[in-house]
User: Fold these one by one.
Assistant:
Number 1:
Amino acid sequence: MRPNIEKSANRHSEEPVFSPDCEHRLKDVAEDAPSKLGVFRRAYAGGSRLAAIHAKCLECVSMSTVAIRECRSVTCPLWQVRPYQKKRH
Ligand code: SF4
């Protein structure tokens, strides 16, 4: 399995270098839901299970935070831990 993140050509760079597949997906997210780009970048960089869950739920419902909150797929393994369960006031 190909890792999502590869070594940077510039070893002094702080920016992760993602695999071509992840870069392609990040480009789509930047166009379709730019406010969610950070979530996907954190998920692809690894080290954040919350970001991975968040990104997976966003993908599942075409980036709709309301749809995640109102998700009724109680058999989904992520359902108990999905983001946006509480409404912001
Ligand atoms: S919890 Fe709901 S929105 Fe999240 S992945 Fe599962 S089915 Fe999709």
Number 2:
Amino acid sequence: MVRIPVVLLSVLVLTAITMASVQNKGAAEIDLYGGKSGNVPFPHLRHQNVLEDCNICHTLFPQETGAIQKLKDAGELKKKQVMNKQCTKCHRQLRKKGEKTGPITCKTCHVKVEKERDK
Ligand code: HEC
Ligand code: HEC
Ligand code: HEC
């Protein structure tokens, strides 16, 4: 009588552990669309490792490829909203605190592909 729930419980626990370990973390490096200023190469995995909490970013947009563009096209995200509210905001805050951070100037984030190729 008592055994069935125990077996069920361990199956549920094991399933939860397995699901957590195969969590889809997406690509390690992502090339984000940045308009005329040029695309933005984004080290996704490095941010995951340093920041740990996925929701620091994935509250504004879901964990899907092309999510930002999709929401911008639908008018649910403004252009530059992610850039200003997340990327640059965080980098600036960390710089103020004197901690290791990411770029805050346009050209260190946006890379002109054509120019890179002409070099
Ligand atoms: C610093 C911001 C940031 C953090 C933190 C972050 N992500 Fe992302 N993630 C992004 C961006 C930006 C994209 C690209 C969205 C797009 O293509 O429009 C993305 C895309 C994804 C995708 C879609 C697949 C892909 O490669 O495009 C998955 C899955 C994903 N993230 C999972 C996670 C998980 C799981 C975590 C936590 C362990 C996490 N992310 C943490 C910014 C972040
Ligand atoms: C920390 C990196 C970072 C910095 C610094 C940065 N950007 Fe961005 N920018 C992005 C990202 C990521 C996007 C795409 C997401 C979004 O639209 O919020 C973007 C989007 C944009 C867009 C909109 C593209 C579109 O048509 O949808 C423009 C325009 C832009 N940036 C210009 C600039 C200018 C000008 C500066 C300097 C004042 C700048 N950016 C600094 C990362 C950055
Ligand atoms: C909550 C804070 C936070 C957010 C949000 C965030 N970053 Fe960063 N970023 C960091 C930190 C911390 C580092 C330094 C990582 C390390 O220690 O390697 C970094 C590093 C980087 C680098 C690497 C610079 C180098 O030295 O090579 C790039 C590029 C970058 N971020 C772009 C972005 C873009 C684009 C976004 C928005 C989609 C973003 N970051 C959002 C905290 C953040």
